[in-house]
């Protein structure tokens, strides 16, 4: 995946960044078991990227209220609300998921990457939203970048 440009917004753990072209892009780095959810409205050239750390906010509801993008189940409603507030239309949004790796040698007990991926897939399925691109799983961390002009994801 491509390195971030100087004009890129960088998304940290449990954060969300939303921007419109002429900002060049939005990037997240070192996605181990975390998953980046990328959204792009092709007409407005408007995009968002969230860095989801955990699948379920029931383990810490207070944290989910303070930082909704940490958890998949609180991140997605917050993201849809933020995108719609900017004029993005659900029918124009293109979606990508990246990350969700198994970073530990014996991670069969926790499987956070798999659980994050499954939680997000269920949320998208319930909303009737199609994921256009996925690069998830495996054993290596990833970085991801959304080009806000073209919608290209590297």
Average per-residue pLDDT, rounded, comes to 92
**H and E order:** EEEEEHHEHEE
User: Total strand count, please?
Assistant: 8
What's the story with the biggest beta sheet?
Answer: 5 strands, mixed
What would your notes on this structure say?
This protein has 154 residues and is an alpha/beta fold. Helices cover 23% and strands 30% of the residues. It contains 3 helices and 8 strands; from the N terminus they run βββββααβαββ. It has a 5-stranded mixed β-sheet with strand order 2-5-4-6-7. Strands 1-3-8 form a 3-stranded mixed β-sheet, with no helix packed on it. The protein is globular.
Would you spell out the secondary-structure blueprint of this structure?
Layout: E1 9-11, E2 16-20, E3 25-31, E4 35-41, E5 46-52, H1 61-66, H2 72-85, E6 93-99, H3 112-127, E7 133-136, E8 142-147
Parallel strand pairs: 1-3, 6-7
Antiparallel strand pairs: 2-5, 3-8, 4-5, 4-6
Overview features:
single chain, 30% strand, five-stranded mixed β-sheet, 154 residues, 8 strands, alpha/beta, three-stranded mixed β-sheet
Please give a quick description of this structure.
By secondary structure, this protein is an alpha/beta fold. The protein has helices at residues 61-66, 72-85, 112-127, and strands at 9-11, 16-20, 25-31, 35-41, 46-52, 93-99, 133-136, 142-147.
